[in-house]
Write a structure and sequence with these properties.
With 126 residues, the chain is mainly β. The protein has 2 domains: 2-72, no CATH class; 78-125, no CATH class. The protein contains 1 helix and 7 strands, in the order E-H-E-E-E-E-E-E. It has one helix spanning 37-40; strands spanning 2-4, 49-57, 64-72, 78-82, 94-98, 110-111, 124-125. The strands form 3 sheets. It has a 3-stranded antiparallel sheet with strand order 1-2-3, with no helix packed on it. Residues 3-67 form the Transglutaminase C-terminal domain. It comes from Illadopsis cleaveri. Its EC number is 2.3.2.13. Keywords: Acyltransferase, Transferase.
Length: 126
């Protein structure tokens, strides 16, 4: 498992597992891997993805199998709601909602709004 930058450049692997199985004819087996936020967070940036590469070999035949899975990390959405009528030349109250999906507190966040008619947007500390 490694991170992949938005440019496509892969980082160094930060997790590896090795499993060996004996599989009877016609049967299948499942290997589950859980990756916590605390484990992948130091390796990813704002627009990165995680790449899982799985490779296997069949001991009896020497056949090699491989598969990759690219997992895009979704950023949470902001919800904007008008709290009053939009009238030219008058202030317009807007509610912005953001839910922190992470298992730790976010600090130092700011909100910056831009748009037509906003002469000098100012960051709002949250």
């Amino acid at each position: 498992l490694c991170s992949v930058r938005y440019t496509g450049v892969a980082g160094a692997a930060f997790r590896q597992e090795q499993h060996s199985r004996t599989l009877p004819p016609g049967q299948e087996d499942t290997v589950t891997m859980t990756v916590t936020y605390a484990e992948y967070q130091p390796h990813v940036g704002d627009q990165d993805a995680l790449k899982l590469t799985v490779a296997g070999s069949v001991q009896e035949t020497g056949q090699v199998l491989a598969k990759e899975l690219l997992v895009r990390l979704h950023t949470p959405e902001l919800t904007l709601t008008l709290l009053g009528p939009a009238v030219v030349g008058q202030e317009l109250p807007i509610q912005v909602v953001f839910q922190n999906p992470l298992p730790k507190a976010l600090t130092g966040a700011t909100l910056r709004m831009e748009g037509a008619g906003i002469a000098c947007p100012k960051p709002l500390a949250l």
